[in-house]
Write a structure and sequence with these properties.
The protein is an alpha/beta fold and about 525 residues long. Helices cover about 45% and strands about 15% of the residues. It has a five-stranded mixed sheet with strand order 3-2-4-12-5, sandwiched between helices. A three-stranded antiparallel sheet has the order 9-6-10. A two-stranded parallel sheet has the order 1-15.
Length: about 525
């Protein structure tokens, strides 16, 4: 590892190896919340295969076809890819993939559902799970009900958290294998080298965020003090709006008020957050193009921004590009403000198994056995480190890349990370202090992370017109921050939201919540 990279890593609270590759290959969830997340398994290079249904009944390779989004310009090369070939041997599988550009994925799903020509396994992103398209497809019997089936597979039981099952179920039934993620992972990422040289401390309150941004503007002109993105209806989960609202003791989008579930749009804490961003915008403390920006992290990885709020574990993915621009750059994180953060849903969607392609119970067992196999320790080591002797070696019994060159070679050609189930967090025996810090953060802050109470529920009104309703308040948020409307204009938008279906949403979510509470 070169000196520049060593210096950079000295300032970053890095993520476990499993999260690093997940971020690079699957994209940072918007996309990208849990009861009590697992503590994370400690992985070792080898492990006996788990006994589970169909383990011995399947003689030849298990044929598994995937449809999943593509987050890069070009699909990865599968033919002649030694990692892909060896992974298929390891998991006794024959994998085919239909990659669809992420920007077109929702439309492609609609067409595929309508035509019924599904892959055996379809990745359903979190943003689609509560859509009319998927809800109707699930209720109509397009996918296998896995509610009871997954209990028969020990590695799936260990790897899939209860909260991810709760938050991905439809009418109490599980129509896909949840792609589990930690719930507490949103925080502040900042340029530690700049902060150190300027004598600044990482902010830990909303007021300190503003004061720090002011100092940065004065002492480092030309740099974006706080990078904001809002070109996404779900961006509030990741761009700091929810995080800052929760830091004041507010709701994580929804909360219980006077016996009803209410959105945070009309709460003092949410309005305070918008007021802060409005003030920062007017004082050039955030980027003027924020309504057009989908990923604020591009500014920090290009050396143009000092702070942003996002999934803090993703900083590891931004660092390599940053040190190319500024070799001595360092990143670090502030995981919580006032010991609070917003919980995310605890998943990034599901792997739904099609009944049209997987026709029999035995075929279903074979597919589930494949997924169970992917979560075993030797398969996890493979998906994170590659081939022993080629990409990694054992150091005191733990996998370690042979060199930077073999690590880069593996990362460049690793097409298999997403073909399987990953534990929420994993601790490698040779984890660095930074990697351990991230794993600890997932657990330590999960208990204080404010959940969004509507995550487990399906609203008929939202499945039918959620996009329209979201856009009303999204447009109002952007216009208010930019100073294009005042408090009266914002209040008018909220009244329109309620009139167009918001009142029905409140009633439906409250009814579902009360039913779940046994009321």
């Amino acid at each position: 590892m070169g000196q520049a990279r060593k210096k950079a890593w000295a300032g970053i609270a890095g993520i476990t190896a499993i999260g690093l590759l997940g971020g690079m290959l699957a994209g940072c969830g918007k996309d990208e919340g849990e009861a009590a997340p697992s503590t994370g398994a400690t992985a070792s290079p080898g492990a006996a295969q788990s006994a589970s249904p169909a383990a011995s009944a399947q003689a030849g390779p298990i044929e598994v076809s995937f449809m999943m989004p593509l987050y890069t310009d070009q699909p990865p090369k599968l033919d002649g890819n030694i990692i892909f070939d060896e992974y298929q041997k390891l998991t006794n599988s024959k994998i085919t993939v239909n990659y669809v550009p992420n920007g077109n994925y929702g439309d492609k799903l609609n067409l595929t559902f309508a035509g019924g020509d599904l892959s055996a396994v379809t990745m359903i992103p979190a943003s689609v799970l509560k859509s009319t398209t998927f809800i109707n497809a699930a209720r109509g019997g397009m996918f296998w009900d896995l509610t009871e089936e997954i209990k028969k597979y020990p590695e799936l039981v260990k790897s899939i958290t209860d909260i991810s099952i709760t938050n991905t179920s439809v009418d109490g039934k599980l129509y896909g294998l949840p792609i589990a993620r930690p719930t507490a992972r949103v925080g502040l990422v900042y340029r530690k080298d700049w902060f150190d040289s300027l004598g600044l401390k990482a902010p830990s309150t909303m007021e300190e965020l503003y004061a720090t941004a002011k100092e940065l503007k004065a002492k480092k002109p030309g740099v974006i003090p706080f990078s904001l993105s809002d070109n996404n209806l779900g961006a509030s989960v990741w761009n700091g709006v929810d995080f800052l609202t929760v830091s004041q003791g507010g709701f994580n989008q929804w909360g219980l008020k006077d016996g009803k579930l209410e959105p945070y749009f009309d709460t003092a804490e949410y309005k305070n957050t918008l007021g802060l961003l409005r003030k920062m915008y007017s004082e050039d403390l955030i980027n003027k193009d924020f309504p057009l920006v989908t990923t604020a992290q591009t500014t920090i990885s290009a050396g143009k921004a000092a702070m942003l709020i996002n999934a803090y574990d993703g900083a590891v993915n931004w660092l390599p590009n940053l040190v190319k621009v500024e070799p001595d750059a360092k990143l670090s994180i502030q995981q919580v403000f006032r010991d609070k953060t917003n919980s995310i849903s605890g998943h990034n969607g599901v792997f739904a198994i099609s009944k049209s392609k997987v026709k029999t119970a035995d075929q279903l067992k074979a597919i589930l056995q494949f997924f169970n196999r992917t979560a075993e320790q030797d398969a996890l080591v493979f998906r994170n480190f590659g081939i022993e002797g080629t990409h990694y070696k054992l150091v005191n019994g733990s996998p370690s890349f042979i060199s930077d060159e073999t690590k880069n070679q593996f990362n460049t050609n690793n097409v298999v990370f997403n073909f399987g189930i990953n534990p929420m967090a994993i601790r490698w025996p040779n984890a660095t202090p930074e990697q351990t810090m991230i794993a600890d953060s997932y657990l330590n802050y999960a208990k204080n992370a404010a959940p969004n109470p509507i995550d487990p529920f399906v609203s008929t009104t939202y499945t039918e017109k959620g996009g329209e309703l979201d856009k009303i308040m999204y447009d109002a948020r952007v216009k208010y921050i930019m100073g294009e409307i005042d408090e009266k204009g914002y209040a008018s938008a909220y009244a329109e939201w309620r009139k167009q279906g918001g009142d029905k949403l409140i009633a439906e979510y409250t009814e579902a919540y009360n039913k779940a509470q046994g009321k």
